[in-house]
Amino acid sequence: MEMRHTEARSEIQHLKLDTEHMVKAKGQICSQILEKQRRIILLEYESFTLSQTLELIQQERVNLSAKLMQKSTHYTKVAEDIRVKLETQQEWMSSHKLSSESGQQVLVIFKIKCSFSGLTLDL
Q1: Which of 2, 110, 58, 7 is nearest to 119 (CA)?
Q2: Nearest by Cα to 18 from 6, 28, 26, 29
Q3: pTM of the predicted model, to two decimals?
Q4: According to the model, what pLDDT value does residue 99 have?
């Protein structure tokens, strides 16, 4: 009977140790679960923040693209206006150059005729 009592005590001691190990293991597992849940919450928050940032970046890209298109249209119009003004000025210069050259030729011919007829002309 003493032997059974000793065996029973030993078995109880062994069960208590097993129970303590299981309680410690359970505590560690719960701690790991809580840590992983905390990390999941942080990652979800970071994901949400990154999504908002991405949305803001995309909105900014759209706004900048629109501004770029406006500037491009404006500068295309300015370039066309400058081209037209330059053409107009070149045409004006060409027409006045020709009339100026023609006027100088007429003046030279007139001077020659005047010199043959004995007139002096100071122009």
Answers
A1: 110
A2: 26
A3: 0.51
A4: 57
Q: Does the structure show a pLDDT above 60 at 101?
A: no
Query: 94 in helix, strand or coil?
Result: helix
Q: Which residues contact 111 (CB under 8 A, 6 or more apart)?
A: 121, 123
SS3 120: coil
What pLDDT, on a 0 to 100 scale, did the predictor assign at position 105? Answer: 64
Q: Is the pLDDT of residue 123 over 90?
A: no
Going 12 to 15 to 20 to 26, the CA torsion angle's sign is negative
For residue 12, count other CB atoms closer than 10 A to its CB: 10
Q: What is the pLDDT of residue 119?
A: 52
- Distance from the Cα of residue 93 to its chain's centroid: 45
Place of tokens 């001691």: 13
Q: What SS3 state is found at 122?
A: coil
Give exposure, 32-47, as e/b (b: 16+ Cβ within 10 Å). Answer: eeeeeeeeeeeeeeee
For the record, the structure tokens of 42 come out as 């942080």
Which amino acid would we find at residue 53? T
